[in-house]
Every structure is written in structure tokens, then in C-alpha cells.
Amino acid sequence: MSTVEALYIFDEHNTPLLEHSYVGRPPASSTLLPLYLSHAAPRPSLIYLPNTNPATLLYSVIQDQLLFLCPCSSDTEPLQVLEFLHRVADVLEDFLGSPLLASKIEAHYDVVAQLLNEMVDGGIIACTEPNALRDVVDAPNFIKSLLGGVGLPSSTPSSLTPSATPFSLASRPSPRLGPTNTPQATSSVPWRRANVRHTSNEMYVDIVETLEVTLSPSGRPLSAIANGTVAFTAKVSGVPDLILQLGCPGGVQNAVALPVFHPCVRLNRWKERPGELSFVPPDGRFVLAGYEVDLLGPAALDAFSTSASAKSSPKLNIPATVSVHPSLGPSASDFEVRLQLNPRFTGKSPAPNSSSTGGKGGLGRGISGAGFSSSGTTAAPAIEEMAVHIPLPVGVRNIADLRVLKGNGDASYSPGDRSIEWHISSREISLLMSQDRGGGVGATATLRGTVIGQEDETAESEPAPFATGTYDYDDEQTPSQQEKTKTEPRKIDYAKRNKVLMPSCATVSFSVKGWLASGIKVESLNLDHKRSKGLGSGVTPYKGVKYLCVSRRGVEARC
Amino acid sequence: MESISRISSLLETARDLTLEAANNANNARRSTPKELPSGQLKKLLDSRSEREILEGLRRVVTMSYRQPPSQTLPFFSHVIKNVASPSLAVKKLVYIYLLQHAEHEPDTALLSINTIQKSLTDTNPHLRALALRVMSSIRVPVISQIVSLGIKRGAGDMSPLVRRAAALAIPKCYRLDPNTEPQLLEYLSTLLGDKQYFVAGAAVAAFLELCPDRLDLLHPHYRSLVQKLVDMDEWGQLATLRLMMVYARKCFPRRTRKVQKTPHSNTTSSKPTKSTKGFYDTESDSEEEEEKEQNMEEIAVLDPDLELLLKSCQPLLQSRNAAVVVAVARTYLYLGTPEYLIQAVGPLVSLLRSAGDIQHIALHNIVQVCLTHPEPFVKYYTHFLVRSTDAPHIWRLKLELLTLIFPYAQLRLQSLILAELSHFSHSGSLDPTLVKESVRAIGRCSQSPATSPQTSARCLRLLLKHIGSADGHLVAESLEVIRHLIQRNPSAHRTTVVRLAKHLDAATSPQARASIIWLVGEFAGLDSENNIAADVLRILVKGFADEAEPAKLQIVLLAAKVYIHHLNANPPPEPSKTEEPKASPPLLDSYHEEEGGFRDENLEAHSQPTESHQPEKPHPIKALYDYILLLARYDTSYDLRDRTRVYKALLATPTSTQLASLLLLAPKPVPHIPSPSETRKGYVLGSASLVIGDEGGVGGLRGYDDLPRWVKEGDEPDAALRDETVSTSASTYDSARTISAADRLDAAAGSSRTPDSIMSPRSLNGVGESSVGVSASKGKEKTLDDWLAEESGSEEETDEDEEEETDEEESEYETESESGGEGDRLVK
């Protein structure tokens, strides 16, 4: 019943990077990989392989282009294994630095091996908290130098017990006087490392929202959900006790639905006062909370059908929407994709406002590094990485005459592709925006193309498009009549056949810095000095807030 | 919840990533240490300098990950002798090597046992835990007794780290030598009662591995485990929830109480209750009988101990771990009442926010819950809308969910779902299977018993619209579903068949035509006064040569059916004919009566119309039939010719049609399309068998445990077992509970104040020092939240003084570390 029998990691070219078996005799990675690859392309995360001995359940996760495989010979809870694989990726990234690259693993097998041994013991998942692991495994040195001396200073190989070094002795305010002098190497809070020390104390809140919007052919939003994640970076000495106050027009409790929290968050506090997160953070970077916001509100369904007109549909405030108009032109083989940009958002401004602030006045970005302040502020959020993606049916052989009618951008399609990509750079967006600044309706851009179906199909159906419309064996019918009946439905048939070739949807990708679809803001981030321990009284950590709204093909319009 | 690595990939722009990747590819690939010749490597390992040994070990470990063990095995003795090194870093690497290679050289490996054993008594708890873990992981059966002793020692260790290592070593020791089980059980039962939540979690995991059936060991620990559930780490929570599901099923009989149904609860609560009952329908027949009383409703009466479990699960619904959320949902589904389950629905849906791999498994679990309790899912419909980016295994489940909630949705939502399905059915040219599935989904929507006739008719209209489409898949699949719908209620759909027959002019897909022709044939016997079958046949015969094979087959079949109906209606006069009507099925009998007027007088007059060459023209149906037979006889298809021959033989003698009617006019069973996941309904929520389905064997995958039945009333272990032990060892557990994460935090935070009393090993061992300062007085059920919420003011007074002290000290360190930092910078 052991959960994790082995862990295999492959790099982006599927060459084995690491093979670590925990318990039993799991099939080797060389037998599993071909079986995994033989599955059709969007591979499910759990594959059953009856042909191995013993029959194996194969779990897979792809993270940072690395493939993590985990075989199991007996029934286990699938989510447990998958969550574990994600944690392995998180931990490796925490120790080896982000992004996780094959070369980093190769260069630090000794660290990885220690981590893997600590995380799973005899097939049972033991410990996956990065902070707890930092207590027992030393991160590779280059990370330490990067973080500016973070980490336990006990990595000197000569010291058997960390407490023996004068430094760590000193780090304990009151040396223990008990009968057994057990050094407190373990942390008292399971998710926080012991004896955290930072020379510069910093706290950063990153709120990322991922949009998932579905628009009906009429342009009415069917569903609009923003999936939010609050990522937190704590580099604060001692044991800080923090209060993060989130605010939202209309109240957090009304907006935020189905929240999940890191174990450090006090649930009762949230229940009593929604929007207030009180917690003792782990050291380093972690996900504090996740939530979702229904941008349409609860009454969306009622509004959907009471009024037929699109105007009364719930207003959706997102940076860009798209609409597809198929079956245009004389032979109904043209289609048009219109991109509508919200005037509130600008493209990359020529002179970036470097002193970008998030939320309220006090929460300026402490250090203007991190490559954030280059564009996009709360005052004037900017759209970046705009791309429209139009998937095409299988039958489409080529797209003729693909051109951007209005606006600009770079639409690319090569024969045989299953989709059209239309990229618009942020500079082009700002150009577009400036053109109709006066109207206030925002800018539109249009892409038009003509589909060409399979050649052989038309050729085949040409001689006898209809089997029954004509009565070939009927002598009474005159040939002329026959012709008539033949040609007329054929036109309709073209339209019909081209309809099959029409794209059925288009999706928009973009990212907007400094703006959140839900309107959630960080109102305050305070350190409770009374409760926090180990931080000097006069020390106030730097605070920084960053908002990011992302759509990864998340805004989808149908037709 | 999204994992941090996924979020950071969003936050860091693609450009940064690629830059760093390129950088790294350049640097690190080159910088990976080149492999040294083995002689040099051995020299490094044998060196006196620790730095060199460490370097040598790093290289060996790296080698062991890149090459087969035969390459690294020669260094075995060189590596192992470093096990006695005083350096922790060296030890760790030696241990890693040892674990990987011990099996290949068990004898040499044994040499190291002694040194490892010594480490068990080291002052550093990390080292003790490490040594215990390594020793138990060496797969050499000889040492099982030593390991067992080590576990015994570890179980009594004062450091929770070591106790946890001991708990995890128990199943490993059992695997080495099953004879050690009695001793191991003893250690395990001590560890199960450990007051440290993360020791208890590990102990539960070990218990599940070692002896999942020895529930008797659990009674005394049940309540403390349940109370510790919130503070355990996520993996401990998973193990505990898994264990508790079995425990509760075997120890708390399902008691029910009958109450008068309240009118309000009719729609919301009574239905789920019933369906839950249906789900466990095998459990007791008496319950089934009771349910027959209409206005009485059964309400589960929960054992207080069971309720304790259900209540303590609630905070876990906000867990970041998807597996924990599903485990809680499982607990509520199989142990709790519908009211509890409803709380779990939202968190289950929230799992759809996570990565695609987790989404897939979560959807399977959602479908499983939705099959029995669809109503609470209705309001989350927006999450189930299919997106163009979804992978096939995802949209398949989403479509199923939409159809499952469809009957319970309000009208507007129903029309939205139908619009959604029809969108995918005709624009789904992206993926033919999506078309197929969405058409089937429309069929399921209209089939569901809860769907109103109007909605059903609407579904049918939707499907009929598809018939003219140029998309072959769509038409074929639509007709398939239409056929099912018609067969469910043939009499109501007579006109539909006529409509379909008209579509024969437009439908081009051979499959679609075949389907329509078959349907016409099935209805050839109904209402023969104005049946269109013969006429359709007449038209089809004209184009017979241009038809595709599937359609031809059906045309021949239609001809045979029409002909046999004709024969049954107008039996040729024969001496033996009197017996015929009796033999023919009753259905046909009735037509026989009605259709008297249809009878051809001419034919009746002649004894053998087929064979005698009469000057009169034969009946048109007969003529058509003969013509078809003639055409088919010269067809290129073997299959068609063979079938034609069969029909010809069957209907050779017009006087005896019994066999033919038996074959051709047999009543067809009404098809029922179950929801695709119906077949998996029997599997337990959260199991891998649920995801794999019957593909993994009928009884589930290897190692799959079915849900145990509820224990029968009277067979359950005495509830006092749980009470009694708690009361006798109350002091132990009280103090155990007080030292939860909260108190540890307290201890750490206020370590300057009362470090000894809280962290002293004596209290850790649970000797019952209930006077542990502030924390003990706060009652037993304190969790982390409570503690931090109600941090008492009295404490703060004393804080103030000591805080200053701490601050002073702190500032000292501050400067020190700062200078250290400066030093670092200088170095850089």
C-alpha cells in the first residue's frame, strides 16, 4: 500500500535525468517511458499500464518542461501522488532556484538525493515543507549567495551538531539549561524554519488572477471567473506575525468565493472578518491563499434569458474581448475575427512610470528591482503579450488571403497548422488606442481570412453530390430538370460544407500588470510587533505589492 | 491551490526564463564535474581531508544517478568506511550511497550497521532520526532485530523527529522480517497515542501499512487522533481520514430515526437521503422496507464520536491539498449526512482551479458525487462549461456533469446547457469525438426521468435540426440518439418518423441514411392504413444502385420487413393457413384484424401467387421486393448478397412466415444510454480505480479496498472502549493536546520566557505536567487558531519586561548578522 514507489524525472527531450526508487521493485524508467509516450498527445495524468509486471499506475506531471513520473503498483489516492509530485517540483525549485532546469538538477545530485530521501520514507510521504527541509538539507551554495546569506549557517562540514558553532548558539536568545542540552534545531512552527535571519527584511505580496471567460456568439458572457492566487514572499527575521488586509469594492466576502489557504492562515480570523489574513509566514516564497471571483455575479443567469438584447447583458470589465464572424463572402468561406480593446487599458507607455505603487500609498515597491516597474501601473494598467488564437477544424487545408484589415499585428498561419496565431505587441496596442482616444469606446482590430477545405473531398463529391435528390433511374424525368435540381442545392451545399470548415471559437491571451479583474486590493500589510518574535523593535520590513491579471487563452468567444 | 512553481512561472516573464535557461545551459552543463578515473576517485574517498571526501562522495552520488549500479559498486568499501566520519554532510552522502547499494553487497553493508547504531544515541535529534531511517531502510533481513530494537528506542525518544522516524520505520521493519510483528504492534500503539501531531500522522500511515485490520488498537486513540487531525500535516491528514473511514464504518452502526417529512425538506434533503440509501442498498433490507412508508423520512442519527470526526474535518475543506479535500468529501459522502456533503461540494468544485492533471482526477471525483447528489452542483454550472482548450479527457467529464445537473436546473439554465451542447455538436468540427459526445449528451438530457416532456421534445427538435448538416459524424450520431429517443416511446413519434423519412432526400451520409431506413422499417408495422414504409421503399429502390453499402443493407432489410408485413396482413390462401395467425406474435395479430380491408381479393383467390405466372400484375409490394432481390443479387458486396439470400430463403414460401417474423419483427429492447461514469459508480471516491474504471479489472485495481459495510447494530465494539482509556490516561492526553502546533509556536515565540517548562523533554514525553505555564490552562481542544486568537493579556504583561531583554539581544544579533551580510557582500 505504499504510496510512492519511485520517482523518475525526465528533461524536455525525455532523456532520463533522475531515477530514484523508494520501495519494492518498480518498473525501470526505461520501460515506463515508451509506454507513457505511446499514449496519445494530451496525456492524462494517470495512466494504467496493464502490460508491465506488475501492472502499474503511472502518474505524471509536467512542470517547467520537466516530466515527473511516479509508478504505483497498487491502488492509491491519485490526488495524493499528484500533489506530491507538485510538491517535489516546488521543493526542488525552492532549493535549486527558479526556474527549475535540467542542468540545475544535474549539477546538484547530492542535494536532490538528500531531498528525495527526506521527502519520502519507505514509500510513505514524510515531509514536503520546504522550510522544514531546509532545517535538514543544506541548499546549494550559489543560492545562499543569491539570497544574501539566508539559511542556516551550520553548513560547515566540521560541525556535527549545529549548536556547537558559536553562531547558532548565539542565535538562541536564552541558552537552554535543561538536563539534556538538546539544541532546538527543529522549528516550533512546522512550516517555518528555525532561526531565520535576514539582513534586509522584506515582504512582498503578489496577487495573480487568471481569467476564464466564455462569451456566447452574441457577445454575452456565459461565464467569467477570475481564479486568484495570493503569493507571498517573506524575508523577515525571527517569527513574524502578519496581518494582510484585502479589500474589494463591494466587500471581500461578496466577491471572493471558495477560498483555500496555506496551513499557516488562521481560519477563524478569516471567518470572523473576511478579507483579513492573519498568519505566521514560512520563510521564503509560498502561496498564501487561492480564491475565485465570479465576475458576472450571482444574478447572471437571470439576466441571461430575461432580456434578449445583448445590451442589457452583464457588463464585463476585461481588457479585451474577441468575436468571430464566420461564413462571410460570396461562397461563405470567409471569416472575420474582431478584437475589441477596452479603452481603460493602454499599451506600453513610451515613458514608463518607474515609481509604480500598488494599493494604498504606504505600500510602495520597496526596492525597484525585480523588473516590475518597467510598465503597467495601477493608475494606467497596460496590456502586454496580447495574442489571439483561432483553432481550426481538421478539414481546413489552407487559409488563403489572411490579412489584418484594421489595426495591426502579426497574424501567422502555415498550411497544415491547426490554428492561427495573431500577435499584437504592446506598442501596437498603444498605437491603436491613441487612434480613437476621443471615442472612448476602445479600439478594434480585425482579421480576415478564407478557409480552403480538402481538395479531394470536393473532387469526389462533384460528380454525384446527391444520391437521392435525383432519380437517375427514372426515365420520365427530363435531363434539364435534373440539372436544375442538381445545381441549386449545390450552392447551399457549399455553404454547408464551408460551415464545417469555419473556426468555432477564438481565444485571447494577454497579461495586464497592476490591475486585477476582481478589483481586489491589498489594503494593508502589517506586522504585529507584539506577537512577532525575533525581530528588532525598530525594524519595519519593506513591503511591496504586485498585481497581475493573466489570460492564457482564457477569454474565449464562440460563434 | 496552484503550486508556487506554477505561479512563479506566470510572474516571471518568458524572456527572463529563456535568458536564464540559456545561461544555465551554457554554464551548468559545462560545469558538471567531469568523471574522474576510478583510481583518483578512490583516492579522494580515502583522503584525510574532509573536503576531499565530500567532493569524492558528491561525484559518486552523481555517478549513481547517471549510471547503472555496477559502475559505482567498486567504491563500496571506500565509501562505507567514511560512515564513521564526524561530519554530518559526509554521513548524509554515505547514507544515500549505502541505501542505494546495500542490497548488492549485504555483507559489506553490515559492517556499517554498528556505526549507524552508535548514531542512534547521538545528541543531535536530526542525526538520530537520520540513523534510524537509514538503518531501517537497508534491505538486509538479518538486521531486523537490531532495527526493531532501534525502533523501540526511537519510539521513546524525546525528540518528535526521532519518534516520527521510528513510526515510519515500522512498516519497513515488517517488510524485512514479518516475524517482528508482535513487537512492532506494541511500539505502534504507543506511537499512535503520541501527543505530537506529526508523529501521530506518521504512526497512522504506518498502521495502514502494517495492520489495517487491527482496529482494536485504535479505540483508545480515536478521539485524540480526531482532535489532532487539524494540526497534522497534509499527508498525516490523508492517512487519518482514510483510516477513520474504515474505523467509523466498522464501529458506528448506522442508526436511523424516522421523522415526519417536512414539506420544505421534500426537495432538498429528502431526495439525497434516499439516493444515499440507494447507494448502500445492499446493507440492510429492513431499511428498504421502512422506506416504503411514504410520508416518513429517515434521518441518520450520528454517534457523538462520529460527529466529532465530521466536525473536525470541516476546517480541512479549505486545505491547499486537493487530496485532502477529496478525502473529506469522501468522509462526508460515506459517513455523514447530506447536510455535511453539501459543505464539501464547493471545495470540490474549487479543485478545478488547479493544474490540468489535478483537474482531471478532481472531475472524476466530482462526477462520482454528482451521480448521487446532483442538486448542490447546479449553482456551479459555470465551472463545467467546456472550453476550447480543454483536453478530451477533461471535456468528456465536463459534458457528463452538465447532463447530470441538467434535470435539476431551472429552465433558464436548462436552455443554456442545451445551447452549449448544441454549440459543441455543430461547431465541434475541432474534434469529431466532441461532436459525438455532445450529441449523446443531448440525448441523455432528454432521457433523464426528471426531464419534462417539453424539454424532451426540445432536445429532439435540436437533434432533428442536425440531420441536414454536412458533417457526417454529427448526422450519424444525431440519428443514433433520435432512434433511441423514438424507441423509448414509439407511439408518440409516428410523425417524427415521417419527418425523418422526408429527410432522406437531404441526408447524404450513408450511416445517417441507414439509420433512417432502419427506423422506417421498424415502424412499417404500425398503423398500416397510411404507413409510409412501402412508399419510402418505392423511392429508395430507384436510387438503389447509388447508395452506399450500409444504406443498401438497410434497404434490403426494409424491403423484407415491408414484404413480411404485407404477407402477414394478406396471408395467401393455404390449406394450413388457419394456424398462422395464432403463431404470429400478438402485436401482428391485431394488425391482422384491422387490415382486413386492405386485403387484395385477387391474391386471395389464387393459391400460390408467387410461383404461378398469372396474367395479372403481382401486388406492388411483392413486385418491389422481387426487384430489390434481383438488384441485390448482382451487387458487388458479399455481405449484401449473403443477406439477400437469407431473406430470400426466409420468405420463400409466403404461407409460412413464422420464422421470418420471429427474426425480422422481433421487438427491440428499448436502449438506455447510461451516464458514462455509471459503470464506475461502485468505486470508492478518491481511489485510482475510480479514475481507471473497469479497465483495471472488474473488482478494481490491485490493492483496492472496497468500502466496508456499516457494522450491524449490536456488533459494534463498545463505545466505552473509547471513553475508558481516555479517562484513565486523561492526564497524558490532556497534556498531549495542549502541546499542539499552537503551543510549540508559543514556546518558540516566547522562548525567552518559559523555554524550559514548555520545551522540556519531560513534558514532551507526556508525563503529565499540566502546569506548563500558560498553555496548559487553556483547555484541551485548543488549536493553533485558538491559541493565537486568544493570546491572553496577562501573558503580555510579563512579556513586556522580557521583550526588552530579547530585543536587546536581538539587536546584537542583528548587527552581527548585518556585518556578516556585509562580509558576504565584500566577498562577492
TrEMBL record, chain A:
The keyword Transport applies. GO terms for cellular component: clathrin adaptor complex; endomembrane system. Residues 179-189 have a biased composition (Polar residues). This is Clathrin adaptor, mu subunit. It is found in: Endomembrane system. Residues 155-169 have a biased composition (Low complexity). Belongs to the adaptor complexes medium subunit family. It comes from the Eukaryota.
UniProtKB/TrEMBL annotation, chain B:
One of its GO terms (cellular component) is endomembrane system. Residues 282-292, 787-821 have a biased composition (Acidic residues). Keywords: Membrane, Protein transport, Transport. Residues 257-295, 569-593, 745-828 are annotated as: Disordered. Its main location: membrane. It comes from the Eukaryota. InterPro entries: AP3_beta, AP_beta, ARM-like, ARM-type_fold, Clathrin/coatomer_adapt-like_N. GO terms for biological process: intracellular protein transport; vesicle-mediated transport. Residues 262-277, 766-777 have a biased composition (Low complexity). The keyword Transferase does not apply. Residues 40-653 form the Clathrin/coatomer adaptor adaptin-like N-terminal domain. It is found in: Endomembrane system. This is ARM repeat-containing protein.
